[in-house]
Recover the amino acids of this structure.
């Protein structure tokens, strides 16, 4: 991709940049001449992985995305350094494997804290700037699991992504009148650190749920996922170069995500028609 486009003066703010798609996105954006604020737990480590001759394009900030004060400070530093924010990518995510019965309420809360409330926190802090400039694009990274449950014992993660789906769509209705779009990005499986070492598992598993077997399966497929993080990064950049008004409410990444969603839409359509008589029976 050439950096000679009229969009590379845009300023990006990206969370979840320590590894995977977030890291690939930051690397490519900086290389292409975009200005980027990367919210990360380890700014020094992130800076080491960015092209040295483009380091001035990067503002790597140690940020607790669950803290209002920390995120507000990061947003203010971005405005001070780059003057504006154009594109926000809420990429940080947390995966937890465990059936409801074998999980604590705190296990569930942490999933929602990262996957939903941290997104709300970032959106709340950037919105005054986007609204005052009359433009902006918010890309919330969910999953095809924000629409269907294809695996068991993943209830808290799937629930948090369903919630993020609803939040993103509702937010778009709320802010589009200000020239701002809120769009969901739903990846399939990508070769990142999300599975394997980064996946949290129930501490007190109940044998009947077979969470340990599912964990072993996840570990076995880790590294063989069809999705390429570098190509996902390029897809994000392509999205940013489109007219925001033409963007759909949801963009799927990966052929696996496409196939699963297509099957889910067909299933829901079939069930809707099969139950049409019962559905209509509740009208006056």
């Amino acid at each position: 991709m050439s950096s000679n486009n009229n969009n590379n003066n845009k300023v990006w703010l990206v969370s979840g940049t320590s590894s995977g798609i977030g890291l690939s996105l930051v690397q490519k954006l900086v290389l292409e001449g975009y200005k980027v604020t990367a919210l990360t737990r380890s700014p020094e480590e992130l800076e080491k992985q960015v092209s040295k001759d483009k380091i001035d394009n990067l503002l790597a900030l140690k940020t607790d995305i669950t803290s209002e004060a920390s995120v507000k400070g990061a947003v203010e530093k971005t405005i001070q350094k780059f003057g504006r924010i154009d594109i926000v990518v809420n990429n940080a995510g947390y995966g937890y494997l465990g059936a409801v019965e074998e999980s604590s309420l705190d296990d569930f809360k942490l999933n929602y804290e990262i996957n939903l409330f941290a997104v709300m926190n970032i959106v709340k802090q950037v919105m005054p700037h986007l609204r005052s400039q009359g433009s902006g694009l918010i890309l919330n990274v969910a999953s095809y699991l924000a629409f269907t449950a294809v695996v068991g014992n993943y209830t808290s993660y799937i629930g948090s992504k369903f919630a993020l789906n609803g939040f993103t769509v509702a937010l778009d209705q709320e802010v589009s009148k200000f020239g701002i779009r809120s769009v969901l990005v739903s990846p399939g499986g990508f070769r990142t650190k999300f599975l394997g070492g980064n996946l949290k598992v129930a501490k007190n598993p109940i044998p009947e749920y077979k969470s340990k077997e599912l964990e072993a399966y996840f570990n076995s497929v880790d590294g063989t996922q069809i999705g390429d993080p570098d190509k996902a990064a390029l897809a994000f950049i392509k999205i940013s170069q489109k007219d925001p008004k033409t963007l759909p409410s949801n963009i799927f990444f990966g052929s696996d995500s496409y196939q699963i969603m297509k099957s889910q839409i067909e299933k829901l359509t079939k069930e809707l028609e099969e139950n049409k008589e019962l559905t209509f029976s509740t009208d006056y």
Confidence is low (pLDDT under 50) at residues 1-6. The chain has one domain: 11-255. The two ends are 58 Å apart (CA to CA).
